[in-house]
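Hey, resending since the last one bounced:
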Amino acid sequence: MPDEASPHRTAAVIPAAGRGVRLGPGAPKALRALGGAPMLVHAVRAMAASRAVELVVVVAPPDGAPEVRNLLDAHVLPERTDYVVVPGGDTRQESVALGLKALPDTITTVLVHDAARPLVPVDTVDAVVEAVRSGAQAVVPALPLADTVKQVEPRGGGEPEPVVATPDRSTLRAVQTPQGFERGVLQLAHDTVGSVGEGATDCAGMVEQLGSPVVVVPGHEEAFKVTRPLDLVLAEAVLARRRANDEF
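The structure tokens again:
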């Protein structure tokens, strides 16, 4: 249970309305099976594993909220898990905004987590929450890049693409979730930047467009995004190892 003496209250919003076409035909990405349960269930469990998180808001496909609610009811979640399911929008921005509307007024810190990152460790979740509670307005977990990155001039049709720059990878980070925010800053970003339609790829990018600071905390290699079939194979292997080690 959350600390009743603390002025901080944390909730997680999980947008799960995307189709995930890169995983191939079938169910929406968040509902694809991983170790016998949908990825969404694992993502909810990951957020609920943090004692700082008192509410999880799942944003379902616009016409799929009852089905998602039934799905979550059918799977074992931590005993203290409090969750609600709301219909989402046509875009990720719209879905997160609808998730924000579902939060009680008492919530001060908001985590936004990809349903396609089902295996994020609780230590990463806690590190993000702690950074926000310590005064950061926006926090993202991230990892240093292992590969050299090339900036190119995009070409279509599989044509060779000219390299225009090689960024210094020591200054680059691969961003993960959950991303954490002071609630007022995230709401302002959705009320202003979101309405302009300049497609930031994540909520932290929207906050950056406000001119507000965003900080990075260490991410984790197991917080990877399940986007393609090979990612699903890796996720199954990680989950199997956790179960063999009685971690899950």
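The chain is about 30% helix and 20% strand.

Sorry for the duplicate.
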